[in-house]
Fold this sequence. Notes:
10% strand
Amino acid sequence: MDISEHIDALRLEGALLADAASRAGLTAPVPTCPDWQVADLLRHIGTVHRWAAAHPAKGLREPLALDGGSEPVGPVPSDAALLDWYREGHAALVDTLVAAPADVVCWSFLPAPSPLAFWARRQAHETAIHRLDADAAAGTEGPRADTDLALDGVDELLRGFLVRPRSRLRSEEPRTVLVRATDGPGAWRVTISQEPVVTVTADAPNDPVSRAEPAEPADLTIAGPAHELYPLLWNRVPADRAGATTYTGDQDLLRLWRETAGIG
């Protein structure tokens, strides 16, 4: 996906999130985020949108503190104004990314072709995953994630977040998980050990270099359509609710994933 596609996804998913939050109501619990109500979800994502927008908007070379009350995030309003505040921050983020020059220089924290590409991609997935949280709170499933967005989101998780030293996904003995999309070009081999995760791609999107199909069998193979792999691997649905996804091998690894591979 390119920058404009990520911005389009951010625009759509952000609107869907607001709609689901409105249906659910501010006091509805968020099943996918224990201890949160919808108001907490809106405070979080509204703050993140403002925090994210500030980096390309101001060309910041160092990360801002991610907390309400500090400039330029500003204070979080009362619950009565919370949904409008969220919508304003979402629209401002979209506008900032549309207007930012392609060569803007600012801080980012995952590999990307450019800082602008990073922020567009990261905020598209931040918003899409939290839209699933809002849907869960509303008790109704929203539209399935677009296949390209879902594949890209799996790729960001497996090759971006989980390989960071701060990831908690670890195993005393080396274990491997092969993730394969059944409806698009995506296959990732994830090696879990006492060291940071290593992910090798077979034919995942956005990877023109590493395209060697894993030859050895994995301890666990997860195969399914992208729209199921996306929420499954981001720990938004349990394995038994991803009905078209199959699991071959050591399913204890599903429990390990669920307990230690969580991303907010």
